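F.,

This is the one I mentioned.
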């Protein structure tokens, strides 16, 4: 990794401080020997300033060390973990500044720590390098927690969408069209929009969109995208422009979000785009009408999504935004699973929970999610349709009343699965789940629709004690390991 100037200044300061202390010199004594002021030396050691080469030579002479040793980025063995931490790139993935933590002060504090703490830091670095933190799991978990602490509702983003709509669109119009958003980007923000190139360039054909900056900004949209997907990307680009966001990815793909700031800005842009496409006032009325029915009407649900011309994910995410404050449904979870028609692997790629403790989530597990769960079951139904017709592109919808085997907690969950338009064979399901308490039963009237099945579910196959499960994808090895450990502890206690 190439270190930026801030880290180079910090390492130099730590090195100067370490050498000064090893020579048993105070700041004032080094100031006297070098002819520099105490305040200037203090700023160097704090990593705020980097001296010019002539002053480095004077400092090296005052400390009795070679010039090259002083400017080397290699620290002493005690401070080596600090260099490793900086070089690892982990700090860029940790949103420390968003928690009010000054990275410079933290590293200086670490440099003064005893050897035991340095050993702990080195251990954490090794763990981070070999764990999924390198895949931004920490940042994504931090972002998820940030959303959950705010009940997944952000008033400043709602107001930004409302203000933009009132200034640039017909506020009384229910639906925002793709053409309207294209026109705004072209006329107001001087964009060029290319909807052909990604369709013919095979290497890039799997990407949703790419932004190219220069004399004139050009947005390459994949022609395979639906209008709903294009609206989402166009809405995000509008947010980046009105907020003048620079810390962002220029490829519209989750995998290209390198820092927490990029991840956070992507979330805000996504929230804005969804709020712009799904007008709060109209949507609340429509969702309440849907929930008030005694029957679970699949066609009504899909008709709403098609009327707003959004993706199922945008629709469910918007309900999750408004659930606590406007729908009086404070407890829910949202999950997105991905799979391919040729595999039995199901990946949880997005999740959020509001005011509930137990649900089949967790980014970091490598175990097999319960195949009884509606998110997986509907994906399997969609796979069957896709195998019969490779051009199938419709919605597969289902609902279930689920009860967790271990805890007895009950949920009403609704899932929609859909094949990808970009990558043949890929499918995604999105799920909204509500705890089956008295409040939900009063608000979602179709909760006891006879056509909705009941199912005992669990977290993962590896931790599940349900016997003779015909859907089991793996043996309960995690459960057996825990039972064995429990038996050993019990035997030791008796001994």
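My design for it:
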């Amino acid at each position: 990794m190439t270190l930026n100037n801030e880290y180079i200044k910090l390492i130099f300061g730590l090195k100067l401080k370490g050498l000064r202390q090893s020579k048993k010199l105070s700041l004032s004594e080094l100031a006297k020997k070098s002819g520099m002021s105490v305040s200037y030396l203090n700023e160097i050691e704090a990593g705020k300033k980097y001296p010019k080469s002539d002053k480095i030579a004077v400092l090296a002479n005052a400390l009795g060390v070679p010039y090259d040793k002083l400017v080397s980025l290699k620290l002493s063995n005690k401070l080596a973990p600090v260099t490793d931490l900086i070089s690892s790139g982990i700090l860029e993935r940790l949103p420390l500044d968003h928690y009010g933590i000054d990275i410079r002060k933290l590293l200086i504090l670490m440099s003064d720590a005893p050897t035991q703490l340095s050993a702990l830091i080195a251990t954490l670095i090794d763990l981070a390098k070999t764990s999924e933190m390198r895949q931004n799991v920490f940042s994504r978990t931090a972002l998820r927690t940030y959303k959950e602490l705010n009940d997944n509702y952000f008033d400043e983003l709602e107001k930004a969408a409302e203000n933009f709509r009132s200034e640039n669109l017909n506020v009384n119009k229910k639906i925002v069209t793709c053409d309207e958003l294209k026109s705004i980007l072209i006329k107001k923000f001087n964009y060029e929009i290319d909807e052909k190139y990604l369709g013919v360039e095979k290497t890039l054909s799997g990407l949703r969109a790419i932004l190219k900056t220069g004399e004139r900004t050009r947005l390459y949209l994949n022609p395979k995208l639906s209008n709903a997907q294009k609206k989402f990307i166009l809405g995000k680009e509008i947010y980046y422009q009105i907020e003048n966001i620079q810390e962002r990815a220029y490829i519209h793909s989750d995998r290209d979000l390198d820092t927490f700031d990029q991840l956070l800005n992507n979330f805000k842009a996504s929230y804005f785009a969804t709020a712009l496409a799904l007008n709060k006032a109209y949507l609340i009325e429509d969702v309440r009408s849907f929930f008030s029915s005694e029957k679970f009407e699949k066609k009504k649900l899909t008709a709403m999504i098609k009327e707003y011309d959004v993706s199922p994910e945008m629709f469910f995410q918007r309900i999750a935004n408004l659930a606590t404050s406007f729908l009086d449904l404070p407890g829910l979870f949202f999950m997105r699973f991905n799979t391919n028609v040729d595999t039995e692997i199901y990946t949880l790629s997005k999740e959020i929970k509001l005011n509930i403790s137990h649900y089949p989530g967790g980014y970091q597990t490598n175990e097999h999610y319960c195949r009884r769960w509606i998110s997986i079951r509907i994906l399997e139904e969609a796979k069957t349709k896709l195998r019969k017709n490779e051009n199938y592109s419709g919605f597969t919808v289902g609902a279930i009343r689920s009860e967790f085997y271990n805890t007895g907690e009950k949920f009403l969950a609704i899932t929609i699965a859909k094949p990808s338009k970009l990558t043949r064979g890929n499918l995604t399901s999105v799920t909204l789940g509500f705890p089956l308490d008295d409040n939900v039963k009063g608000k979602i009237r179709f909760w006891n629709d006879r056509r909705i099945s009941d199912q005992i579910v669990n977290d993962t196959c590896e931790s599940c004690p349900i016997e003779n499960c015909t859907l089991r994808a793996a043996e309960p090895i995690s459960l057996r390991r825990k039972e064995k450990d429990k038996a050993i502890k019990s035997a030791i206690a008796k001994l």
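The chain has a mean pLDDT of 87.

Talk soon.
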